[in-house]
């Protein structure tokens, strides 16, 4: 009887030990999933409010969504200046600055170029080649 009891006790200990490992493994998995979920939500929130502030001659024009939109705005502005100057090789000097900010974009490329064009008709142009 004693040996049977010892065997049963041993089996119960093994089962409890296995169950304990499973509980610890489940808790660890839940912690990792929670951390990944928090990181994903934080990244989503951060990326939805990251924009690029455009400044011309120290004056803030507004914010564009990304660098590509900024490049489109510069190309649009150069095109407007080419029409005005009557030349096809216009390049803008370094009056326009861009910096990342935690804000929502409020300008399209066209709007950005149009605002800069209307702000100053004496935009500094690089040496035409």
What do these coordinates show?
The chain contains 3 helices and 3 strands. By secondary structure, the chain is α+β, with helices and mostly antiparallel strands. The mean pLDDT is 76.
| Oligomeric state as shown | single chain
**What is the total number of structural domains?**
2
- The number of E-state strands comes to 3
Radius of gyration: 31 Å
Mean pLDDT: 76
Quote the beta fraction: 15-25%
Shape verdict: rod-shaped
- Tally the helices: 3
Strand count, sense and closure of the main sheet? Answer: 3 strands, antiparallel
Q: Could you give the order of strands across the largest sheet?
A: 2-1-3
Question: Uncertain segments of ≥5 residues (pLDDT<50)?
Answer: none
What's the end-to-end separation, in Å?
Answer: 104 Å
Helical/strand content category: alpha+beta
> What level of helicity do the residues show?
55-70%
What is the H-and-E element order? HEEHEH
Notable characteristics:
129 residues; alpha+beta; 2 domains; three-stranded antiparallel beta sheet; 60% helix; rod-shaped
SSE order and pairing:
Elements: H1 2-48, E1 50-56, E2 59-64, H2 67-85, E3 96-102, H3 109-119
Antiparallel strand pairs: 1-2, 1-3
Helix pairs in contact: 2-3
């Amino acid at each position: 009887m004693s040996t049977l009891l010892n065997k049963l006790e041993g089996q119960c200990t093994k089962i409890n030990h296995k169950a304990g490992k499973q509980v610890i493994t489940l808790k660890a998995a839940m912690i990792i999933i929670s951390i990944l979920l928090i990181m994903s939500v934080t990244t989503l929130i951060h990326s939805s409010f990251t924009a690029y502030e455009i400044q011309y001659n120290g004056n803030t024009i507004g914010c564009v969504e990304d660098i590509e939109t900024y490049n489109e705005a510069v190309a649009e502005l150069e095109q407007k200046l080419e029409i005005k100057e009557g030349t096809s090789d216009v390049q803008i000097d370094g009056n326009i600055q861009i910096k990342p900010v935690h804000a929502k974009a409020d300008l399209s490329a066209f709007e950005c170029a149009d605002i800069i064009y209307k702000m100053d008709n004496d935009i500094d142009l690089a040496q035409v080649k």
